[in-house]
Amino acid sequence: MKKRVFSGVQPTGNIHIGNYLGALKQFVELQNEYECVYCIVDLHAITLPKDAEDLHKHILDVAALYLAVGLDPKKSVIFVQSDVPGHAELAWVLMCNSYTGELSRMTQFKDKSRGSESAPTGLFAYPVLMAADILLYDADIVPVGNDQKQHIELTRDIAIRVNNKYGENTFVVPDGRFLKEGARIMALDNPLVKMSKSAESDLSRISLLDDEAKIKKSIMKAETDSDGTIRYDMEKKPGISNLLNIYSVFSGTAIADLEAEYTGKGYGAFKKDLVEIVVGALSPIRERFEEIRYSKELEDILKDGAARADVIAKETMRRVKSHFGLGICK
Ligand code: AMP
Ligand code: TRP
């Protein structure tokens, strides 16, 4: 039996090269070796208020991007989280098996609730819903960016805890899969913080759908240092190191080889080449996105994905309910 992979991306705008290199690129590579289930996690998106029309648009945007980067609906199950009721259902069961203490320690919750005395309960329970996503599909492997490490650890803790209490085979205990290179892409205008969808300045990121002019502007304006040598040193030279990292993962050239190639050359020349590499990598993604985003095929793929996901989810819920003694209908 093939091992199963599960991962999810929130339907927000501005999906950027950090999301691509940290997550989506791995999703595509994994499809050939594993049984893959990829979700658009819209229930996670509403942990902070969202405009309904925007949310709906972003769900379809992310779905089209999934396909544009190379996910193949024949190989992978691609669907929207709220179309499969098992996610919310299992989340409740897991909430009864997780603790306010451990959830209060989640750095994402601390960041997002900072400054407010009271936060939405859903924001607090966010990692439990994420655990439900993963455990619902008996996933063995969860490819994500480094920033999700703590949530994966929590998922494992909850799975082990439930297994100890309700039977060893209640849940499969999953492993995270984090990329070393490219696992954390930093903001172009401030390489000390990670590239994010929500940063105010558009120049802080390169979105997957940016055109050539915008890509060029972001890279040429990216923060570097005054030392002028192209060398990887995340601590002393975070700006140029981040650009080297991006260059390396997009081109498939090792960082050491890039350092050698650019010895004696200036940041300007390096950045110009990087623009070309990134434009070359993103153009086909943008073209494919335009083809599919407004096609009927997109909705059909998501409906078919939800039906296939639901079969797995129902089977898991039957098992969980039986281990917990819940319900009377089989
Ligand atoms: P999110 O933007 O939080 O929905 O993240 C979607 C996926 O992209 C997750 O697997 C994240 O870990 C990953 N990700 C988000 N930001 C970055 C970044 N700056 N560098 C690398 N991976 C990232
Ligand atoms: N929390 C993840 C993020 O912000 C998204 C996510 C939700 C996810 N459920 C998941 C990722 C399950 C992997 C598996 O990136």
What can you tell me about this protein's structure?
It is a single chain. The chain is mostly helical and 330 residues long. It folds into two domains: 4-183 and 296-324, HUPs (Rossmann fold, 3-Layer(aba) Sandwich); 202-290, Tyrosyl-Transfer RNA Synthetase, CATH 1.10.240. It has 13 helices and five strands. The chain has helices at 17-30, 42-45, 52-68, 86-95, 100-104, 107-113, 121-136, 149-166, 212-220, 238-251, 255-261, 267-293, 296-324, and strands spanning 4-9, 35-40, 76-80, 141-143, 175-177. The chain has a three-stranded parallel β-sheet. A two-stranded parallel ribbon has the order 4-5. α8 (149-166) links the parallel β4 and β5 (175-177). α3 (52-68) crosses α12 (267-293). It is globular and about 70 Å long. The structure holds adenosine monophosphate and tryptophan. Tryptophan binds next to β1 and α7.
Provide the number of structural domains: 2
Count of individual beta strands: 5
Query: Helices and strands, in N-to-C order?
Result: EHEHHEHHHHEHEHHHHH
What are the distinct ligands in this entry?
A: adenosine monophosphate, tryptophan
Throw out a few tags for this protein:
mainly alpha, 330 residues, Rossmann fold, 54% helix, globular, 3-stranded parallel beta sheet, two-stranded parallel sheet, binds adenosine monophosphate, binds tryptophan, Tyrosyl-Transfer RNA Synthetase
Short recap of the structure:
The chain is mainly alpha-helical and 330 residues long. The protein contains 13 helices and 5 strands. The strands form 2 sheets. It has a 3-stranded parallel sheet. Strands 4-5 form a two-stranded parallel sheet.
